[in-house]
Design a protein that fits this description.
This is 2,3,4,5-tetrahydropyridine-2,6-dicarboxylate N-acetyltransferase. GO terms for molecular function: chloramphenicol O-acetyltransferase activity. Keywords: Acyltransferase, Repeat, Transferase. It comes from Methylobacterium dankookense. Belongs to the transferase hexapeptide repeat family. The protein has 285 residues and is an alpha/beta fold. The chain has a domain of 147 residues: Hexapeptide repeat proteins (UDP N-Acetylglucosamine Acyltransferase, domain 1, 3 Solenoid), CATH 2.160.10.10. Helix 4 packs parallel to helix 5. The longest helix is centred in the C-terminal third of the chain and has 14 residues. The protein is 18% helix and 20% strand. The strands form 5 sheets. A 6-stranded mixed beta sheet has the order 16-13-10-7-4-21. Strands 8-11-14-17-19-20 form a 6-stranded mixed beta sheet, with no helix packed on it. A 5-stranded parallel beta sheet has the order 6-9-12-15-18, with no helix packed on it. The chain binds coenzyme A. Coenzyme A binds next to strand 19 and strand 20.
């Protein structure tokens, strides 16, 4: 055994390895947080999920825990959900946003702008049955109530007899194409398609498909005019300019589309389409 002083001298002379302080042990990785679900089976946007969405280019406004998203949620980056209430399946294209409102089975293209309190895909009740009440067609409890009232035990035990009944089907998909602007408080009926470049006026009730570049207003929604003449609409649709990102359109005078259409077509031909990251909610959980 070498004396401590001898070891120190040998170390200083480089003849014994230096003593290194033991590296602090790495903390074990935190177990992945298990996804939190709402009673209707949607994923709560926890702080962790909100941060992941943000990092992948998806903007959400409500604080952690105050928003929920369905499993079937496919989002192109960047897009902004702000305070949307999303129930059934949703797909949203890049550069699109909605301020808030209700969405059920909706596909939004690129560059879609949606104002406040828009309602898309509200479900119908059973119109042709004896009753429109969900007590007769929902296979699960209609109310979330306690047991201290007349009939409570029977209510909790009750389920409608749905055997041999025509299924009550709803939730036809709404398709909103590209560069559509939907004004404040509009109601869009399930199953409707809104064409590229269309505008839906404030408080319009849209029950029928909307042609590309039409401006629709009123209740029921009617075409009040078209944004551009037929020839320009045809060239804009054929150009598919929305496949490019805003920075790829720099230098095009977007305020004068008729004067810029040649340059726009040339730009689309010259540029590679923007390839967004596609965010599937289930891959972030
Ligand atoms: C539809 C809108 C874009 C205007 O389009 P426009 O073609 O310039 O419309 P005009 O003002 O020339 O009006 C054309 C006709 O449509 C009617 N109209 C316009 N907007 C309407 C609306 N929201 N509801 C019912 N009718 C409407 C006009 O009264 C006019 O009818 P008339 O020809 O019988 O007089 C605009 O009125 C609108 O609704 N904007 C939405 C604003 C909004 O919600 N902003 C929130 C931020 S996203």
């Amino acid at each position: 055994m070498l004396a401590r002083r001898t070891k120190t001298l040998l170390r200083r002379a480089g003849l014994l390895p230096k003593i290194r302080a033991a590296a602090p042990a790495e903390p074990p990785p935190a177990p992945p947080a298990s996804p939190q679900l709402t009673p209707d089976g949607r994923y709560i946007v926890t702080a962790d999920l909100k941060q992941k969405l943000h990092a992948h280019g998806i903007d959400t406004s409500p604080p952690a825990g105050a928003m929920a998203l369905p499993a079937d949620c496919v989002l192109e980056s960047p897009c902004s959900l702000q305070s949307m209430e999303i129930f059934g399946r949703i797909a949203i294209g890049s550069f699109s946003y909605a301020v808030n409102g209700y969405y059920n089975n909706v596909t939004l293209g690129r560059y879609v702008s949606i104002g406040e309190s828009v309602q898309m895909g509200r479900g119908d009740h059973s119109i042709a049955w004896l009753s429109t009440s969900p007590f007769f067609y929902l296979p699960h409890p209609v109310f979330n109530v306690g047991r201290d009232f007349e009939g409570a035990a029977s209510l909790h035990a009750f389920r409608p007899d749905l055997t041999d009944r025509e299924p009550f089907v709803q939730g036809r998909t709404i398709v909103v194409e590209n560069d559509v602007w939907i004004g404040h408080g509009a109601y869009i009926r399930q199953g409707v398609r809104i064409g590229t470049g269309a505008i839906v006026g404030a408080h319009a009730v849209v029950t029928r498909d909307v042609p590309p570049y039409a401006i629709v207003a009123g209740n029921p929604g009617r075409v009040v005019r078209y944004r551009f003449d037929d020839a320009l609409i045809a060239r804009l649709l054929a150009s598919r300019w929305w496949t490019l990102a805003p920075w790829q359109l720099q230098g095009i005078d977007v305020s004068r589309p008729a004067a810029s259409i040649d340059a726009l077509e040339a730009r689309v031909a010259a540029e590679e389409p923007y390839q967004p990251r596609i965010v599937r909610l289930t891959e972030l959980l």
